[in-house]
From TrEMBL:
Family affiliation: Belongs to the multi antimicrobial extrusion (MATE) (TC 2.A.66.1) family.
Name of the protein: Probable multidrug resistance protein NorM
Keywords: Antiport, Cell membrane, Ion transport, Membrane, Transmembrane, Transmembrane helix, Transport
The keyword Membrane belongs to this UniProt entry's keyword annotation: yes
PANTHER family reported for this sequence: FMN_FAD EXPORTER YEEO-RELATED, MULTIDRUG RESISTANCE PROTEIN NORM-RELATED
Biological process according to GO: monoatomic ion transport
Residues annotated as transmembrane: 21-42, 62-83, 95-116, 136-154, 166-187, 199-219, 240-261, 281-305, 326-344, 364-385, 397-417
Amino acid sequence: MQQKVKSLFADRGFWRSALRLAIPIALQNLLLSSFTLVDTVMIGSLGDVPLAAVGMAGQWSWVMNILFFGVNSGASVFLAQYWGVRDVRGIQRTFGLLLVGALAPALLFTGVGLLAPGFVMRLFTKDPVVIEQGCSYLTAACFSYVALALSQAASTLLRSTEEVRLPVVASLCSVLTNALLNYALIFGRFGAPAMGLRGAAIATAIAAWVNVAVLYGAALGRRTMLRMPPRRMFAWDGAFLRHFLAISLPALVNEGMWALGTTGYNMIYGHMGTDNYAALTIFRTVENLAFVFFVGLCHACSVLIGKRIGAGDFARARLDARRFTVLMTAMSVTVGLALIALRTPLLSLFNVSEGVRGLTRQIVLLYGLEIGLRNVPYITIVGVFRAGGDTRIGVILDTVCVWCIALPLTFLCGMVLRLPFVAVYLIMLLSEDVVKTFFALRYFLRDRWIHPVTEQGLRAANNP
């Protein structure tokens, strides 16, 4: 067994390619997570209620970001496989569709957040004070949504074509802008008015547009794939549109169903008490910091497997898929144990009540113990199946595991049986992840996920 594992990873070319992609992508996500950390730490100093209000208001943009992820995931199948055969025209028209697909939900969520913030907040709480403060935050933060769509689309294109440095630089500029403006506008420093939550939202919006300015501004001065004639971005024909939608729509539906299910969890948690949701908001900040390790690995997996399949090298795609799945599991267990060991000093950063801190400590413990199981479906569905062109299996797994099993159980335990919050959270984790992991691995080992979209890949599939 040890010899098999050793031979699986005894490939320097694999390590060079994987680390060259994974490390910058992980660094970019670390910067984006620190963006949230700065917000949470500074807003947490204002009290538990403002922290819960921002956490609930942030769920609106979280759902939107999940939709972005679905659009980007569908497009990245084409981008990575086209990159494998250097089909520049295919990459350019895919990016045009990606922009349209990302901007549509951004405009919709901006309109609702601006015109009906009370509706959004009442989805998660009945507390009038929390609703009022959340509305104040949401009506300013929603001006960042179009910027997020533009920056995420650009980052997806650049990552899929192995240009990973520019998104890191843009994210760094955005994070530094956010930290400085947060400090100035929340607390009234450098001559600025003390605006509290509203100031944090304005800082978020400005920082998001700084990210866009750096990404697209640099593209005008450098020869990246982001620099392309607009007419080529929208040179679609009916056959390409049908093919694109057949692959990308299931990924969008998959992320949308999962996001709505997770929003359902959050609505249950929000109605279980403000302190519980404040603890959950802090936990998610810690979770996002841990998740940067996994995002980099998953994106590297997606790009490399997409390239192999686009070029028709299916045997190498299968081998790399197994390597990434083993790596993800090992890394998840390691990070989970580190979180458990460091949870007390990490949570000491947040200026919240001891009750909220104690709840958060318990949630982090459960997450750290379960994370190895939770990330197996993540790497297989997002990193392997979608890169291979199979976007439908994720819809089936998430619909069954979230909507038919985990969400009804969470509602029963939280709203009917009134079990303690930590117990309800544990039941949610296990009821969703155990079944999903079993069937994801079963499908993975059957090698039915390879569906090329390039001519070269299709020829290889038809002539094995």
